[in-house]
UniProtKB/TrEMBL annotation:
<feature type="domain" description="Molybdopterin dinucleotide-binding">
    <location>
        <begin position="7"/>
        <end position="103"/>
    </location>
</feature>
<dbReference type="GO" id="GO:0016491">
    <property type="term" value="F:oxidoreductase activity"/>
</dbReference>
<dbReference type="Pfam" id="PF01568">
    <property type="entry name" value="Molydop_binding"/>
</dbReference>
<dbReference type="GO" id="GO:0043546">
    <property type="term" value="F:molybdopterin cofactor binding"/>
</dbReference>
<dbReference type="InterPro" id="IPR006657">
    <property type="entry name" value="MoPterin_dinucl-bd_dom"/>
</dbReference>
<protein>
    <submittedName>
        <fullName>Formylmethanofuran dehydrogenase (Tungsten) subunit D</fullName>
        <ecNumber>1.2.99.5</ecNumber>
    </submittedName>
</protein>
<dbReference type="InterPro" id="IPR009010">
    <property type="entry name" value="Asp_de-COase-like_dom_sf"/>
</dbReference>
<keyword id="KW-0560">Oxidoreductase</keyword>
<dbReference type="InterPro" id="IPR012040">
    <property type="entry name" value="Formylmethanofuran_DH_dsu"/>
</dbReference>
């Protein structure tokens, strides 16, 4: 089962607090998840902590599921960072910031596990 979602990203307090420790577990935990409304998680048959594959026209990434009923149905949020960057629009339109909002995405449960920062960078450098 896949759901379609409007993918956005942005800074979070936890993500910002761990910017200087990008190879540490604390940064991995602060950035390698996708928040969905619990209704969307139910549609997927997913629970918090399950692995989700998020796919957009820009790439795909595996992240952990997290419930956030403050998100409207159909909205997916991944904190700003390397995991989000793999599926967001890299075009900066000359302003230096990539497109962080409104990226159409498909989300599904997967048996794959999210990659840590070093493994994620290695994977995308090789492709």
């Amino acid at each position: 089962m896949k759901i379609k979602a409007n993918l956005i990203s942005g800074r979070t307090a936890k993500q910002g607090a761990n910017l200087e420790a990008k190879t540490y577990k604390s940064y991995f935990e602060a950035c390698s998840y996708c928040e969905l409304n619990s209704v969307d998680l139910d549609k997927l048959g997913a629970y918090e902590g399950n692995s989700l594959k998020v796919t957009s026209e820009f790439g795909e990434v595996v992240v952990f599921a997290k419930a956030n009923d403050g998100n409207p149905k159909g909205l997916a949020f991944i904190p700003m960072g390397p995991w989000a960057n793999t599926v967001l629009n890299p075009d900066t339109h000359g302003c230096g910031m990539p497109g962080l909002k409104g990226v159409p995405a498909e989300i599904e449960i997967t048996d794959e596990k999210p990659l840590d920062m070093k493994s994620l960078m290695k994977k995308y450098l090789e492709n």
